[in-house]
Amino acid sequence: MIKKIKTNNAPQAIGAYSQGVAVDELVFTSGQIGINPDTGLLVTDNFTAEVMQVLNNVKSVLESGGSNIKNAIKLSVFVTDLSNFKLVNDAFVDFFNGEYPARSVVEVSALPLNANIEIEAIGKIK
Q1: Is the pLDDT confidence value at 57 over 90?
Q2: pTM of the entire predicted model
Q3: How far apart are CA 61 and CA 76, in angstroms?
Q4: Residues whose CB is less than 8 angstroms from the CB of residue 40 and which lie 6 or more positions away in sequence, other chains included
Q5: Of the N and C termini of the chain, which has fewer Cβ atoms inside 10 Å?
Q6: What is the dihedral sign for C-alpha 6, 37, 47, 99?
Q7: CA separation for the pair 79, 66 (Å, rounded)
Q8: At CA 126, angle to CA 3 and CA 5, rounded to 5?
């Protein structure tokens, strides 16, 4: 059975897609950008703050689908400037506390709302 995920703890979809989908024992999140779900505004204070907001949005979608960040299997990370790779990595060290999922980081030309980073995840349902 396929369950569409909808939560107020992550930004609402800004297009024709679900925040995530749970199927069998897996949760697939749509790409999350650094929108604060409380304000609806993109976090632009600094790149690290934007990364942390994105990770918290991913966490919220995973949790709404019955998973959690510790059960994240794979994250795909899209950045508009690969020179921020070290900052992404440092944020992952802080956020995941040594329990890292598999990950890809790819530079792209642009992201929705001029975000600097977008992350999508696959997680195992608890």
Answers
A1: yes
A2: 0.97
A3: 15
A4: 11
A5: N
A6: negative
A7: 27
A8: 25
